[in-house]
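Feature request disguised as a bug report, sorry. It would help if multi-protein outputs had a clear separator. Right now it looks like this:
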Amino acid sequence: MTRLLTIPALLALLLAPRSAPAQEGAEALAARVQERVARGDALYKERDYDGARHEYAQALELDPACVAAYVGRGHCWYVERQWAEALKEYERACEADPEAGTAWYPRGLVLINLLRYEEARDALDRYLELRDDWWQAWLWRGNCKFELCDYSGAMRDYTRALELAPGESGPWLRRAFLRHS
């Protein structure tokens, strides 16, 4: 006969302090998840995207909130130009941890490829709230603003990209194009 737990009993069970063996089990699980992600990353670098996706899926079976696995699968779809699939993975990563900047930036790039500039700008806004020192994020957000006819906003973003990476040609070219448009 199956015994059902009441909601208070279930909450007490879930919120109870973990014992040392349970903590060790959690650490072993985290290690297995990281191992799967590392295997996925290695296969991704070898351009075995199906194999990488399989490893990331295995990591997600162990930990459905593993942002690195969602992002890894998203990258596999991204390089294959499967924008809709990549977007799903990046969105899952953003849902799993809204503070994970690693998901917001590529989500913005996918949305640019889908010509969804407002959403892309919003994703890049979120990324830049979390990490504002990546010049390419400023460049891409400037491109979104340009497409949305926010030319002064685009110029500010290109200027910030230049401040962060004065030796990069992209921001210089975009600023020059915008000035002469």
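(second protein starts here, but nothing in the output says so)
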Amino acid sequence: MKQASRYLLIATLGLSFSGCATNKSLTTDAAYEQYPLVAELNRKLEKAREDDLAVLSPEYFESSSKTYSEALEQAVANNPKATNTANESLSALNQANQNATVARDLLEDVIKVRNKARAANAQSINPDAYAEAEDEFLTLTRYIEEGKIEKAKAGRADAIRAYTHIELAALKDTTMNRGLV
């Protein structure tokens, strides 16, 4: 009788564990297929990265990215909450896009000199000064996110000076190094 109870206990535990194993997780591709909103969000976030939303609207982009990670985890776990989480992320990403539109307009001149500094390889030639200029730029874009448009406008001249200075230093360094070769 004891042996029969032991077998019954083992069989019950085995069925319990196998019952838990039937709730399978999905591959990422299968999750995207099962939860198309998560797949759409992934595509939109990739485009947002290409469009520099990480610097044009850093807070909302970061929020959207984190929420996307949660949505993907839920989708891979085949959890229906993935759709709601993806909607939250899309909402943050839409706000990031709106902020980026304002930033591109309001900070157009800053963005131009920033791009020139990057083209001159200033981030490699003078990384400390470039990091300071980037911090200044991020402060301006955060002001835009917070609705502090006047503060963002007021900081444009300093950001332009910072990027122009490091661009010129990078060009000078490059020119001097070419002359030495």
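Even a blank line would do. Unrelated, but nice: Confidence is low (pLDDT under 50) at residues 4-9, 11-22.
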